[in-house]
Amino acid sequence: MALARNRRRERGVDYWPGFVDALSTLLLAIMFLLTVFVLAQFILSREISGKDEVLNRLNSQIAELTELLALEKSGKQDLEDTLATLQSSLATSESERSRLQQLLASGAGSAEAANSRIGTLNQQLDQEKEVSARALSQVELLNQQIAALRAQIAAVEQALQASEAKDQTSQAKIADLGRRLNVALAQRVQELNRYRSDFFGRLREILSDRENIRIVGDRFVFQSEVLFPSGSSDLNPEGEVEMAKLATALIDLAKEIPAEINWVLRVDGHTDNVPLLGTGRYADNWELSSARAIAVVKFLISRGVPANRLVAAGFGEFQPIAEGDSPDARSQNRRIELKLTER
Start and end of every OmpA-like domain (predicted)? Predict the structure, then answer.
């Protein structure tokens, strides 16, 4: 009776590995979404950094033009002050000339001196008029330069506004791209889950109803003893029969999955934690688990499964599904897992 109870306990369904695998799938999907988000953020940061460089360059140009405008205004003010001084001096000279002309009219004795003084004043007046004309010409030139600087500043500000508007448009496009990627990812995951369910349903029907062939979460699990002799990566006859059934199901499935879904069947090899100690063909459990996964893949290819739809991976003893060193735990950990996933 104790032996019967032990057998019933061995045949009990262990839901915990399935829960762990489902949680792992969810974490992988979240990691993929985070990768898409980081990629979108990277593209956005590249766009923003480029816009920042343009904005900094435009702001630098505005600062330089503003400084030039301030210098031109300062020079204009200096010339206007000089012009005002010259005009005041001109008015004084004209007043002095009028006074001397009056003196000349009032007395002939001082006519010669007055004429000399008037001649001197006329020369000074002509010089001051010439200086005043040059100052007016410079003021006009400065006015033209200031107008040109203002036009340049207006053009730079317009370019800056256009750049900011384009930057906002780019950010909106990147946000929309992220939303569309998330929607597309969700749709692909749902489609692949549907085909995975159909695939596992077919495997249940065509594979032998045995305890050492089972579904755990989103993976189909073969105990190594079904496929390989102990310590070997050569498929035994019983394993070849089971893998031939698997190949038939895969070929049928490949005809149904749409071409836009880039799916693969991942074959994972796992061992227990007993060291090989270099006593056989393989130096350690890494080599043994990898060799077994590759053997399954090569057999499936020989039966017509497209090679580009298969992936082989070895995990050694480092991904156990049962803890402990008991014979039962080690038996569970020696396994080949099949997982239908996207590339």
Answer: 216-343
Angle subtended at Cα 233 by Cα 206 and Cα 243, rounded to the nearest 5 degrees: 15
Cβ distance 297 to 267 under 8 Å? Answer: yes
* CATH code linked to domain 45-187: 1.10.287
The top-scoring range by mean pLDDT among 5-19, 41-55, 96-110, 311-325 is 311-325
3 state SS of 57 = helix
Integer CA distances (angstroms), 89 to 75, 102, 132, 243, 329, in order: 21, 20, 10, 113, 113
Reported as a single tens digit per residue, the pLDDT across 180-234 is: 655 454 455 556 566 666 666 666 666 655 667 787 777 889 999 999 998 899 9
For the chain, give every domain's residue range.
45-187, 207-342
For helices 111-206 and 15-106, the axis angle rounded to 10 degrees is 170
207-342 homologous superfamily? OmpA-like domain (3.30.1330.60)
Contact 284, 316 (CB under 8 A): yes
Round to the nearest angstrom and report the end-to-end CA distance of the chain: 49
pTM over 0.70: no
Question: Which residues does residue 214 pair with via DSSP β-bridges, in sequence order?
Answer: 221
**Left, alpha or beta for 277 (phi > 0: left; psi -120 to 50: alpha)?**
left
